[in-house]
Write a structure and sequence with these properties.
The complex is a heterodimer. By secondary structure, chain A is α+β, with helices and mostly antiparallel strands. Chain A has helices at 11-14, 34-46, 66-71, 86-99, 111-120, 144-150, 160-171, 177-185, 195-206, and strands at 18-23, 51-54, 79-83, 104-110, 127-136. A four-stranded antiparallel sheet of chain A has the order 2-3-1-4. In chain A, helix 7 packs antiparallel against helix 8 (177-185) and helix 7 (160-171) packs across helix 9 (195-206). Chain A is globular, with a radius of gyration of 17 Å. By secondary structure, chain B is of the alpha+beta class. Chain B folds into two domains: 1-58, Alpha-Beta Plaits (2-Layer Sandwich); 83-217, Alpha-Beta Plaits (2-Layer Sandwich), CATH 3.30.70. In chain B, strand 7 and strand 8 (153-154) form a beta hairpin. The longest helix of chain B has 12 residues, at 119-130. The chains are: A alpha+beta, B alpha+beta. At the A-B interface, helix 4, strand 4, helix 5, strand 5 and helix 7 of A face helix 3, strand 5, strand 11, helix 7 and strand 12 of B.
Amino acid sequence: MTHTLHRVGNRENLQGDYVFLCMPSKDINHVGSGPKLRKFLELCLKNNCVTLGDCRKGNEFHQLSRENMLDNIEDRAVVTATFKDKQAVVAMIEDLKKEDLGLSIVISGLVDEVGECCSKTGLKMHTVEHSMGRWGKTEKLPPQEILEITTMCGHSMISVNFISEMIDEVKKGKMTAEAAAAELFKPCMCGIFNTDRAAKLIAEIAGK
Amino acid sequence: MQINKETCVNCGLCVSRCPVAAIKTDTPSGVQIDFDECVECGVCLRWRVCPTDSLYQQELKWPRTIRSIMSDVLTIAEESQISGRGTEEMKTNDVTGRFKKGWVGLAMELGRPGVATRMYDVEKVAMAVAKEGVEFERQNPITSMMADQKTGKFKEELLNERVLSAIIEFGVREEKVPAILKILEEVAPTLDTVFSLDICSKVGDDGAAPHVAIVEDMGLWLSPNGKINIGLGRPLVKED
């Protein structure tokens, strides 16, 4: 499951896109992890996350409310949240250190910037994973500007055709870029589709 | 997924929601799901977009069941016991020690992003890298779909199944990485799909992840963004 990797973008727009993931490990620390996973999401909310989700039971749209999502977290869940700036990342790491949940935490984002955030909080990166891009029949892929949006759902739940439809609605003035981003978030069950970055990207494309 | 044509009003609202464009409008019965193209991801149904609730999940039988495992993010795979298509991989490396010093993790996600793949293309890549003697990750559902884990040969009845993506995953010693990447360069043009490739390793005492130098030495591209395990899991794994 590499769903928070492979987000396409340039340095500038990736600077507004960080994903936190919290995960227990089977047979090591998963027993009783449910309340800790919930605490993680509460810390994300405290630090003004953009979106949040539960990869096991689905996002708040699927579970009909944010409260349901928080109440339904199970021991083997993988929970996530997105953030839009480095200040929030640093604050989040500080809170996680204080809370000492004991569960694995993974941050996806510009590697050098996440490294900087770790240094500021006295942490060292433990393991790093990079994307080596897309190989094979790449002519089947949509244009770069659409990839930047669709790859924010790593499980590819957001269709390219629907993204184009939403961009058209924004171009016609029938919808705001923010409303389009919120609509596109719905099928992203893990909640890692960063609606703040998506709205900016949609507005940019629609404005061309 | 199927559409109940007795209640469907052919409004077409579901059409653009399908991640693999398997819902067609130009059929003799109006809006219809191309059963062979559908990957059973569940997106159209979960979106609650149908005004007459005509979309329904039919019973899935082997080998079609693997479409749901590899496409529907909420399906729990028996091997990993987690949702999604992969494993804990580097995400819990601070407590599992799966990728130790001197080792590199590699994963090829066939069909990603959004192109989907037939399993015969997954087999092509698996058989190519198997020649280097890699040991496929046992907790990955893909590995149990192989008829022979030594050769990477898949069960015959699975080869034409279409899935949103499938991850071939393994760890190798650092010195083996260039040979594996060369193999991937050779096999990539033979595929009818794409794959997203990722690489990981434990950060050394010098603060660097060893895979970075290996990839850079080969002149290959690495993304500026990535995934970082920040070592807060407990108990922290100790290496001998």
